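ok so I'm stuck.
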Amino acid sequence: MKLPGRLKVRSMEGPCGRPRAKGDETRAIPGKARMEGALKIATYNVNGVNGRMPRLAEWLRETAPDVVCLQEIKTGDATFPAAKIEAAGYGAVWHGQRSHHGVAVLARGRAPREVRRGVPGNEDDFRARYLETEIDGLIVASVYVPNGNPVPSDNFDYKLEWTRRFNAYARKLIDSGKPAILAGDFNVVPTNLDIYNAGSWRFDAVLQPETRALHEELLAQGWTDATRHLHPKTRLYTFWVNAAAFQRNAGFRMDFLLLSPALVPRLREAEVDAGYRAREKPSDHAPAWIRIDPVRG
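replied:
not stuck anymore, here's the structure
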């Protein structure tokens, strides 16, 4: 795909009129027509986008997703590798934070339109965990739920408080009737089918009853876990703590693509690119992806 050589920087006014921070840029590759055919939409916790850029570029080249939600980019807005991502054929919007957290959304050939960043309910929380975009009438949000360890701790209290706010916002989003996808690292193991050995990790924040209950509340709003919808009884993992765990497939499934009701009939595939966990200097997560029939606006 031939791409224009010039980067376009959008307005320095953020969503809802909130000014962007210095270096908080949205770079677009203009001129791309609407996407046609089935859409491949992925989520990938890259665990540091600058250090992981060779693996990310490799995966983009080899699998050609149309839209990608990234988590744990672990970089400030000014140091996000926009030019390298453009060279791979993608435009991007991002919500960065130096050394921690951070989310982004990429689209093949152009940048998505940013809708909002952050979940409402706590104006003092500036951690970069939620970025909502729109692409051809489809809402796509990149989500990074707090890990919450150790238990008990302030970290775990924050995880629960953030997730309650996120759930409240997700309710408004699903009630809007807009076709939407919440994609990301939700830092929850929903059931024992989603982990190799629940007993070994029973004290971890991702398996706590409160964590699971909040995730169940989210799904009860009408969101559908795309992977579980197509693979209801299959053990599929997206995270392995180290290479040895990957070799014995001692994994967790914590990376999801949640679909609003209108998108469920459009779902065609849902898979995990687990092999990328075995590449040189990989993330501890593997990309998860779906293929859906496009939304016609």
